[in-house]
Amino acid sequence: MSAAVAPALERAQRRDFPRHSLSVPLDVIALRSGVPENLPGRCTDLSEGGVGGMVAGELSAGQQVAVELRLPNVGVPVRARAFVRYQGRLRCGFEFVGLPVEQREMIRYWTYRLQNPQFVPHSVLPEEKETTTEAAGEPSASHEVPAKKTAPRIVVHRRRFYFLLAAMLLMAGLAWWQWQRSWKELEVGSAATRDSNAPIPVPSETMEMRIVSKVDPVYPEEARAAGKQGLAIVDAVIGEDGLVSRVRPVSGDDQLLKSAEEAVRSWKFEPYQSSGRAVAVETTIAVEFRLN
Q: Fewest C-beta atoms under 10 Å: which of 14, 188, 229, 238?
């Protein structure tokens, strides 16, 4: 029997929109005790529902962040609030929250351009004029030259072009205003959390490295006889003194969960510091039960 801490498992989310590969810079802004922290990254895929990428920083599932990226052939950047849906080995998946209509339309436009690379919008195209005059060396009407077949082109007249340009500028202004308002809401929510002294969510990998002492859980005899093994995942609240103050079962066999809870309650951690002071944190702990 062995019982050891293992990273929490992340469940794949059902996707309502198709993903498209995209390699552009990705900026992620997360609040650390009310202070915005910019995490640089690289986008790997994009859809109307969210974005995936590689981020140089620690994030936790369920954390709310702000993301920004620029789409190829689209001058206006995509800025949106998002939830971290999974995180592991620098790979992150973000789900958009309240994505404005204009931002969604930009993503749809980029997707259309991606699937139809031959689409090139034109400004005013000169109208073709038919000539029926006969001149020396020119064929008469009775000897018409077959017209060349040309690929269909989309004509955008000058007035429509200026209208579309004005609409895109308006969309950019609305997107920036929405971005600022969403970020203020994120800051207000973080301030409310700090005022209520609620535990700060911290990734399990971070707290695993801060374990000072721990007791291995006892393998229940009934579970061993029944051949039960696997992960018992619990949520734990760790106080400012590094002691576990609350444990809540998340998933796993009931017998294994009970043993894991009893063991985790006796663990001690190095106090987590934020802004120079110790704070209470909440993390996920996965205890593995394995039959020899």
A: 14
| CATH 3.30.2420.10 domain residues, the chain | 200-290
Contact between residue 248 and residue 232 where contact means Cβ atoms under 8 Å apart:
no
Amino acid in position 24? V
Check if the beta carbon of residue 247 is closer than 8 Å to that of residue 236.
yes
pTM metric for this prediction = 0.40
State how far the Cα of 94 lies from the Cα of 75, in Å rounded to an integer. 22
With b for 16 or more beta-carbon neighbours within 10 A and e for fewer, the 198-237 pattern comes to ebbbbbbbebbebeeebeebebbeebeeeebbbbbbbbbb
For the record, the structure tokens of 69 come out as 């990226």
Q: What is the pLDDT of residue 157?
A: 59
Instruction: Say how far apart CA 231 and CA 7 lie, in whole Å.
Output: 10
Query: Is the Cβ–Cβ distance between 32 and 274 less than 8 Å?
Result: yes
- How open is the CA angle 37-94-119, to the nearest 5 degrees? 110
Better-predicted residue by pLDDT, 189 or 227? 227
Distances (CA, A) of 58 to 46, 98, 178, 234: 21, 24, 26, 20
Position 110 scores a pLDDT of: 81
Distance CA 44, CA 246 (A): 38
Q: Which CATH superfamily is domain 2-11+19-104+169-195 in?
A: predicted glycosyltransferase like domains (2.40.10.220)
Domain with CATH 2.40.10.220 in the chain: 2-11+19-104+169-195
Q: Which long-range contacts (CB under 8 A, 24 or more apart) does 169-174 make?
A: 171/76, 171/102, 171/105, 171/106, 172/75, 172/76, 174/100, 174/102
